[in-house]
Amino acid sequence: MKKYIVVIGNFGSGKTELSLNLAFEAAKTQKVTLVDLDIINPYFRSTERRAELEAAGIRLFSPTYAMLGVEIPSLPAEIYSVFSNDSDTVIFDVGGDATGAIALGQYKRFFKDIDNIEVLYVINARRPFSATLELNLDMLSKVVEAGRIKVDALVNNTNLSQETKLVEMIDGYEMVKRVSEKTGLPVKYTVGCEPIVSEFRAYAEQNDLDPALIGEIKQITRYMHRDWERFTTSGL
């Protein structure tokens, strides 16, 4: 059955990293479409990895301003085709705040008839807009209202990019735990890069952290980091 995954999160949450990783993983065995619905932030977008996505056989839709220096974005009409094309998995990378979620809301009439859909809210407790319980609850409320869609599960992606230590993932666990207890939402994933993700797995086992508040521990690749070597060979 065709599956739809909607990934939502505040600025710096890592929703785009998760969207890319889910897309590349699914593309190993399935036909995948990735919809870049981030009309708020012109940087750190999944569209920046168009070449890699296309090389993996992933179809990409994005606002027409992306990578073109145009200030006012518009969503291509072709996006509607994701509700009828032959993709096995369709992933929506949604803009980083309630305003961005409005772009998702225009597809409500299609989503309401879909059974196999999962909406994930990504939390990075090391980012200002996700650093407190109140901020996360406020963001969840606004996204549900603006996007006209319910959130199904939480994702702990607490990190400081290359500076991430074990303490980041532990603090993320505590934040996601509080959000889950307050909202009743389950935790789908705890994600991170090696070696920290393995360190967290060992820590969780040694300290009896609740598996239900960890979800699946998923190792990811960080595609959106900035490094000089990549810039000089292939640009941002």
Describe the protein's architecture and organization.
The protein has 236 residues and is an alpha/beta fold. It is built from eight helices and eight strands. An eight-stranded parallel β-sheet has the order 3-2-4-1-5-6-7-8, with helices on both faces. It is globular, with a radius of gyration of 17 Å. 38% of the residues are buried.
Provide keyphrases for this structure.
8 helices, single chain, Rossmann fold, 18% strand, globular, 236 residues, eight-stranded parallel sheet, 34% helix, alpha/beta
Give me a quick take on this structure.
By secondary structure, this protein is α/β, with parallel strands linked by helices. Helices cover 34% and strands 18% of the residues. It has a single domain, classed as Rossmann fold (3-Layer(aba) Sandwich), CATH 3.40.50.300.
Mean pLDDT: 85
Amount of beta strand: 15-25%
Give the number of DSSP strands.
8
Looking at the structure, the CATH topology is Rossmann fold
Order of SSEs: EHEHEEHHEHEHEHEH
> So what's the CATH class?
Alpha Beta
Contiguous low-pLDDT stretches (5 residues minimum) are: 66-73, 226-232
What is the number of helices? 8
Outline the fold blueprint.
Elements: E1 3-9, H1 15-26, E2 32-37, H2 50-55, E3 59-61, E4 89-94, H3 98-105, H4 108-111, E5 117-123, H5 133-147, E6 153-156, H6 166-183, E7 187-192, H7 196-206, E8 216-219, H8 228-234
Parallel strand pairs: 1-4, 1-5, 2-3, 2-4, 5-6, 6-7, 7-8
